[in-house]
């Protein structure tokens, strides 16, 4: 496995692979890797000849400086996991390698897809994500790029960015990997206390409740959100950042809950903010059988 820190080395490795007509799959990460990340790498290996992973905690996407400073790191463990997963190249840039002039005075913004969910409660977050992903796309020059559906809004925004800006890259959304009790795997889970970790399975349990409500025909978003919020707030350590029901393509609020609905939540357990989502489908409204 090749590990490189500089743009020059990365570019020359990629150049050589391209010369041999090898296709390149790319999974950008912020490290502290878990099985959810590994499933992106495995999907990449099944689609592309070479798999490139970047590990970079991107300062421009953090709206909370404490969250950035406390972001968990485990470089040795990460490299071992990449090696075991059969990754071909890990790009480990320094902050100065990505942003040689400091944080750029340049903003990417998609008003529609950023209006709701984390776009509303984490100002500047997706601007930073689009910036770093665009830069990494130019450096890695991949044929495919893999994003987890756990961060569904990020996945949709990148899909749209690539479409609008004509990046010649196929974006692939990878299903969310979960712990045994249903909690979505996340690098942030390590920050939960034992008690908070126990309570965090309120999120998958809330999804089960949501599925039941949806199947039983609850169409009023306000009533739906209230029932789900009451369920989450049964634990005193929970603070709800948002519970929203949106169209999975446009990410605009659903006025009535029918067809396809993306239920997305952001919840604080103590100081740790976790996000997750669930796609609700009214099969009667689709012609799938
Ligand atoms: P991060 O390191 O948190 O920035 O995540 C890097 C990539 O891994 C993103 O595309 C995430 O959506 C994806 N990812 C994170 N957690 C999971 C998970 N539990 N299942 C699938 N993909 C994930």
Structure description:
With 289 residues, this protein is α/β, with parallel strands linked by helices. It has two domains: 2-174, HUPs (Rossmann fold), CATH 3.40.50; 187-281, Pantoate-beta-alanine ligase, C-terminal domain (Pantoate--beta-alanine Ligase, Chain: A,domain 2), CATH 3.30.1300. The protein contains twelve helices and nine strands. The protein has helices at residues 7-19, 35-47, 65-69, 75-85, 95-98, 111-114, 118-121, 125-140, 152-164, 194-199, 202-215, 221-232, and strands spanning 2-4, 24-29, 50-55, 89-91, 144-148, 170-174, 238-246, 260-269, 272-281. A six-stranded parallel sheet has the order 1-4-3-2-5-6, with helices on both faces. A three-stranded antiparallel sheet has the order 7-8-9. Helix 8 (125-140) crosses helix 9 (152-164) and helix 11 packs antiparallel against helix 12. The longest helix has 16 residues, at 125-140. The protein is globular, with a radius of gyration of 20 Å. The model has no long low-confidence stretch (mean pLDDT 96). The site of adenosine monophosphate has 17 residues, from helix 2 and strand 5.
**What is the succession of H and E elements?**
EHEHEHHEHHHHEHEHHHEEE
The beta-strand count equals 9
Number of domains: 2
Could you tell me the strand content as a percent range?
Answer: 15-25%
Quick one: CATH superfamily of the largest domain? HUPs
In terms of structural class, how would the helical and strand content be classed? alpha/beta
So, CATH architecture of the largest domain?
3-Layer(aba) Sandwich
Overall shape: it is: globular
State the end-to-end CA separation: 46 Å
How many helices? The count is 12
């Amino acid at each position: 496995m090749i590990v490189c820190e500089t743009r020059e080395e990365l570019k020359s490795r990629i150049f050589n692979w391209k010369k041999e007509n090898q296709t390149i799959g790319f999974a950008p990460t912020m490290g502290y890797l878990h099985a959810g990340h590994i499933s992106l790498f495995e999907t990449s290996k099944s689609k592309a000849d070479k798999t490139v992973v970047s590990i970079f905690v991107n300062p421009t996407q953090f709206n909370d400086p404490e969250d950035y400073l406390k972001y968990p790191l485990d470089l040795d463990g990460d490299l071992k996991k990449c090696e075991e997963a059969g990754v071909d190249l890990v790009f480990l840039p320094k902050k100065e390698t990505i942003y040689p002039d400091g944080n750029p005075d340049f903003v990417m913004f998609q008003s529609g897809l950023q209006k709701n969910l984390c776009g509303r409660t984490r100002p500047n977050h997706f601007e930073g994500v689009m910036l770093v992903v665009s830069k990494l796309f130019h450096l890695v020059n991949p044929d495919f790029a893999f994003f987890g559906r756990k961060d569904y809004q990020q996945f949709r925004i990148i899909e749209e960015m690539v479409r609008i800006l004509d990046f010649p890259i196929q974006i692939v959304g990878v299903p969310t990997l979960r712990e045994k009790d249903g909690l979505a795997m996340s690098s942030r889970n390590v920050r939960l206390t034992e008690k908070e970790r126990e309570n965090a399975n309120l999120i998958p349990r809330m999804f089960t409740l949501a599925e039941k409500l949806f199947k039983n025909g609850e169409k009023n978003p306000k009533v739906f959100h209230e029932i789900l919020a009451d369920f989450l707030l049964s634990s005193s350590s929970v603070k709800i950042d948002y519970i929203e029901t949106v169209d999975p393509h446009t990410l605009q609020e659903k006025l009535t809950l029918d067809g396809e609905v993306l239920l997305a939540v952001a919840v604080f357990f103590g100081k740790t903010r976790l996000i997750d989502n669930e796609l609700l489908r009214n099969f009667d409204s689709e012609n799938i059988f």
